[in-house]
Amino acid sequence: MVAVLDRVVAPDHAAARRALREQISRLEREWSALERPPGAAQATARPGHARLLGVGELERARDALTARLAHARALQAQRGATQEAARVRLERMLLEPGRHRFEQVPASALGEGGCGVYAVRPRLGLIGMLMGWWQVKLSSGCPLPG
């Protein structure tokens, strides 16, 4: 006995597209919530007219967004680790300035804005250097334009 199908069942592309659009929407929300430095890549609009994207195009868009998001998270983690190391270094400088003579930590390395630099300097110049009087000073900021 042979079974004959009178109609071919097409895959439900609408449901697949809906699920992919939801995934892309969630990834875009995560992407916009990330704190990125000014030079980080931004999402760009594609030129052209409005159209309905197919399942393959939606999958490619989702995969590209997932890769961009993973890269941005890795950069953010690396930046956080670098800032934490700079904070630890500054704390050590503040606790024992005499052991960290002439060391500097830029404020930008701490994640702060501006051009300031924390530096260990002798108190009272040459006399302070000879007497072992060291202190951590924060520079006034950016140099004046020439």
Compressed to H and E, one letter per element, the order equals HHEEHE
- Total beta strand runs: 3
Q: How much of the residues is beta strand, in percent?
A: 5-15%
> Main sheet, how many strands, which sense, barrel?
3 strands, antiparallel
**Envelope shape:** elongated
Measured between the Cα atoms of the first and last residue, the distance is 94 Å
| Average of pLDDT | 82
Estimate the helix proportion, in percent. 40-55%
Number of helices: 3
Uncertain spans, ≥5 residues at pLDDT below 50? Answer: 4-9
Radius of gyration based on Cα positions: 28 Å
Strand arrangement in the largest pleated sheet: 1-2-3
Structural class: mainly alpha
Please give a handful of descriptors for the protein shown.
146 residues; three-stranded antiparallel β-sheet; 10% strand; 3 strands; mainly alpha
Question: How is the secondary structure organized here?
Answer:
Blueprint: H1 13-33, H2 55-95, E1 104-106, E2 117-122, H3 125-131, E3 134-138
Antiparallel strand pairs: 1-2, 2-3
Task: Describe, in plain words, how this protein is organized in 3D.
- By secondary structure, the protein is mainly alpha-helical.
- 47% of the residues lie in helices and 10% in strands.
- Helix 1 packs parallel to helix 2.
- Mean pLDDT is 82; it is low at 4-9.
- It contains 3 helices and 3 strands.
- The protein has a domain at 57-146.
Task: Write a brief structural summary.
The protein has three helices and three strands; from the N terminus they run ααββαβ. It has 146 residues and is mainly alpha-helical.
